[in-house]
Amino acid sequence: MLDARQLRYFIAVAEELSFAGAADRLNVAQSAVSLQIKALEEAFGARLLNRRKRAAVSLTEAGRLFLSEAQAAIRQLEKAEQVGRLAARGELGQIEVGYVTSVAMNRILPSLLREYRRSHPAVQLRLTAMETPRQLDALAEGRLDAALIRPRPSYAAGVAAHVIYNEALCVAFAADHPLASNHTLHAADLGNEAFIVPHVATFGSHLERLAAVGRFPIKIVHDVGDFVTALSMAAAGYGAVLGPESMHGLGFPEVVFRPLADFAEKVELAVAFRAAEPSASVRAFIDAAIALGRRRELEASMGTP
């Protein structure tokens, strides 16, 4: 069976048309080159090179045909070696990432993708927007490699998560709403409001606690599928929306967003992953998400915008 060394020795002799020149190029003894070429010819049962005492080495017809194949084989072998090294370092491959809409609203997702692409340009990312429970199921089943989620109190066996971001809650309503002139709201100011609740994460429970702080019953709640729908309804005057401050990133000029002076709850985002993840490219993505979260936290503590 042929080996890469025999191919490289033969290519060196064929290109140099000299055993001595090939030995110098390969930095080996000329006798070693001669032995490998002889073994190659014996394996084929045919001469590959013409050897003459007072003339340059030349290729036989069999040698000429074999040379192009040997060169192609070495190129393919070198490519395979390069791919293997890149994959081992996590610099090549494809990873599947899920995310909740909020991670795009607060610009965590584009920042993370930009940083990861800068360090791992050859890795292909496939992104899928989905709610947290579906992401965690897909992660546990191996259909996702990493998940950008709203964190949970506990996770399935083998799944871990790291919080990377948190933000305050605010209330959104139509720009012509009577409370729009208030730059800051208190929970009690919302006692007469009808609320639109996106059926994602835990915003329903946040609303229940807000109502408890303001000591008002939750009057009318419209359940919708996402924040885009919720803000569209809010813009039309159907009610108010309790959600993360990053809602304003969705670009609704007909809606105003007001902070809450007496409701300090925050919502978190986390990166979830399989704790025993073997892929270097996936581990690099997780590390990038955690590093970005730490940097955002430091910037927030320093008051950096």
Would you give an account of this structure?
It is a single chain. It contains 10 helices and 11 strands. With 305 residues, the chain is an alpha/beta fold. The protein folds into 3 domains: 85 residues, Arc Repressor Mutant, subunit A (Orthogonal Bundle), CATH 1.10.10.10; 109 residues, Periplasmic binding protein-like II (D-Maltodextrin-Binding Protein, domain 2, 3-Layer(aba) Sandwich), CATH 3.40.190; 101 residues, D-Maltodextrin-Binding Protein, domain 2, CATH 3.40.190.10. The strands form 3 sheets. Strands 3, 4, 5, 6, 9, 10 and 11 form a 7-stranded mixed β-sheet that branches. A hairpin with a 2-residue loop joins strand 1 and strand 2.
- Under CATH, the homologous superfamily of the largest domain reads Periplasmic binding protein-like II
Largest sheet: 7 strands, mixed
* Basic shape: rod-shaped
The overall pLDDT, averaged over residues, is 87
Q: What is the CA-atom radius of gyration, in angstroms?
A: 32 Å
Number of distinct beta strands: 11
CATH topology of the largest domain: D-Maltodextrin-Binding Protein, domain 2
Which class of the largest domain in CATH terms? Answer: Alpha Beta
What is the element string, with H for helices and E for strands? HHHEEHEHHEHEEEHEHEEEH
User: How many DSSP H or I helices?
Assistant: 10
- Please state roughly what percent of the residues sit in beta strands, choosing from under 5%, 5-15%, 15-25%, 25-35%, 35-45% or over 45%: 15-25%
- Percent of residues in helices: 40-55%
Q: So what's the oligomer here?
A: single chain
* Low-pLDDT stretches: none
Find the structural class using helix and strand composition. alpha/beta
Number of domains: 3
The CATH architecture classification of the largest domain is: 3-Layer(aba) Sandwich
The first-to-last residue Cα distance is 64 Å
